[in-house]
Amino acid sequence: MTTSQASARAATPPGSARSAAGHDASGCDASGYDASGRGDQRLWRWIAFAPALAMMVALSVLPIANLVVTSFQNITWADGQATRSWVGLTHYRALFSDNLFAAGLSNTVIFALAAVAGQMVLAFAMALMVSKIGRGRVLYRAIFILPLLIPGIVIGAIWKLMLNFDFGLVNKALGLFGVMPHDWLGSPETALLSVIVVDIWHWTPFCFLLFLAGLESLPQDVFEAAKMDGAGPWQELAYVTLPLMVPTIIVTFAFRLIVAFKVFDEVYLLTGGGPGTSTEVLSFTLYQRFFTEDKAGYGSAMSVAIIFLVSILLVVAISARRGTGRQP
Amino acid sequence: MTRNIRIPRRTVLKGLGAAGLGGALAPLSWRPLHAASVAPITIVINQSPWFDSFRKTVEAYEAETGNKVELDVNPFAGSLEKQRNSVRSREGQYDILIMNSGWFTEMYAGGFVDAITDIDPGFQLDPDLYTLNDTIYYNAQKKSLTSDGKLMSIPVSPLIPMLYYRGDLYEEAGLTVPKTFDELEANARKLHNPPGMYGIVQRGARGPATVSYDFYPYLYGFGGGIFKNQSEGDFTVTLNSPEGRAALDYYIRLAKEAGHPKTAANDQANVIQAMVTGTAAHVMMVISAVSQMDDPDKSAVVDKVEYAVPPSAPGLPTAPALGHWLAGISRNVPDERKRAAVEFLRWFQTKDAQLETARAGGVPVNAAVYKEPIAEERQYRWMKPLAQALPHAVNSYQFPEASEVIAVLELGLNRAVAGEIGSVEALNGMAGEIEKIMAGHNYSTGQLSPLQ
């Protein structure tokens, strides 16, 4: 018996415990409830559960079901009225020949992996440093989390100015070292990289906060034991800190990866998906197809595909978390 | 349909007095001298360089008639989304939709706007109003934009691109105004001295209607086009013709050799910025940006910018693409508000109202204004070349699925300008995709043999 099970059993009133045991053994509880009594209990459970279930169906299941149904249809308008026609799997098949979708998928994977990897490394280093600082920890923490508090639209404005070809601070700074100005957002070679850098700047504080919380909750006696055994700073990091932080790292990575997969605002504000398809990402492709081109059926199929891809990430993340949970 | 218009006594007396005076002085005009007092209306509109002039014209209408007009101002894409949401609901939020050339056909064909003459059979179009390739009419049977159709809208802004050039630099260098693309290229090369001065700054970014709109004057000016004959229902894609290739090669060469290094990322704001900050010798820019050129608060080149009709290939006429805005009346608003919207449009189309628009920095939709003394004033030096170019304006899309085609053009052209793909690959690729779109919507279509 685990500690939590024991506590729960201990906290349960004797009558209730008997009742539960009685049901399990004979189908008739100690207070005299028969089979129809169990039926009443089941009914009441459902009645109590119904509002929550109805709300979940209305808010989650129905919209997604509607999306799935629409993904098999075409919607056309005439005389101000919509006409829906069934097209089967046409939209799903079309996804495979949609160059924009392919570019969006490929760039999204690159973007998500590169941005999240950058954020993880930077955030871990920052969290490690702040966790070692005695004085001014609150100040550093406040400074480091600042980008997280800035609205996305402001971040777009900040970096559009920073990376401006003619008067951006980045080119001005490079000019001091004799480097010619570069079109960071307009060049196919650097546009995606620039958006990744902005995303790293924006989201590193989020990882930093999670890592700092993780580091501060690590048991100090392990570190003291390592020191007594003569472990240096690097050995302590490699053999004590990192192994203990693995669950936090995996959760942070998974969480960020899922959010990075849904990137839209930074791309929309900084590059509009261009130049060409160099910063095309899935959310932007969906925006283009569904909203700009008004292709509700095809856009719905694309939405379902994106939900499916994000769900895979979610399943992988949960599996990884469970895997680390079994570790000692 | 019974009319239920509330007319205050003062307005009646003013109207009678004015009508009496007008009758004594001249034959009875086709136009009422005063708009009727009607219900408040709401107009959904985009935030464009010409918006301020529209707002001031609306204020003049309110002051003159006492009627109320509410403006819902949005970014370009946001305006379309709001319009779609409104016209597809049971009762619309907006009485007048300000529709762009990229989506007005969607509104006509979808049955989202009512014919003005259905709301008011007595409505008469001002004879001097620009009909802009007859895009204000729609024939639902033929699915065509032709004058045998119903009157669906009134032009709000007759926007086409014009050639803006630095008159002072031309004078210093002894250059003449270019009429052909070769002359434009030669002048741009001569004045190209980066990073302080770029021979030409183009709008090559991918957007809702960005690089495609910038490219059209070149495409049409070289004798190319997107479709064979839209008015006749022939949607054979001709984009990848030799003329189309010549236009795209020229456009890219201009960008690379006499243009801005970030052409592929330049949107309209960047191009205007380059001109007003004095770092562009030429831009091919929508005419509505003129108001910013001589504004001392915004411009470093006050009184230095001149305007000309867009150049073309030798022997071909100038062919700027329409990027105009039209005002249509939502079908799903109460009759009272529809009639109020008609009253506003009846007033808006007149020469007097359009003079107001011009003085407020806008571009008039009434040809009579261009013959007024105002067109001779230095401040309005853009009026004469615009009046020359407008009759040659080309409407790029006559079908409701235009937004899908624009998306293909925006991506393909942007990739070509950015150097991701060559012009032949871009044109063949776009032609193939456009044919697929048109075939998917059951249009009579096809395409030329691929360019080699």
Characterize the structure shown.
The complex is a heterodimer of chains A (328) and B (452). Chain A has 15 helices and two strands. Chain A has 328 residues and is mainly alpha-helical. Chain A folds into two domains: 66 residues, no CATH class; 233 residues, MetI-like fold (Orthogonal Bundle). A two-stranded antiparallel ribbon of chain A has the order 1-2. In chain A, helix 5 packs across helix 14 and helix 10 packs across helix 12. Chain B folds into two domains: 210 residues, D-Maltodextrin-Binding Protein, domain 2 (3-Layer(aba) Sandwich); 214 residues, D-Maltodextrin-Binding Protein, domain 2 (3-Layer(aba) Sandwich), CATH 3.40.190. Chain B is of the alpha+beta class and 452 residues long. The longest helix of chain B is centred in the C-terminal third of the chain and has 18 residues. In chain B, strands 1, 2, 3, 4, 7 and 13 form a six-stranded mixed sheet that branches. In chain B, helix 2 packs across helix 13, helix 8 crosses helix 9 and helix 15 packs antiparallel against helix 16. The interface between A and B is medium-sized, with 29 and 36 residues.
What key attributes describe this structure?
heterodimer, A: 328 residues, mainly alpha, MetI-like fold, 2 domains, two-stranded antiparallel sheet, 73% helix, B: alpha+beta, D-Maltodextrin-Binding Protein, domain 2, 6-stranded mixed beta sheet, globular, disordered N terminus
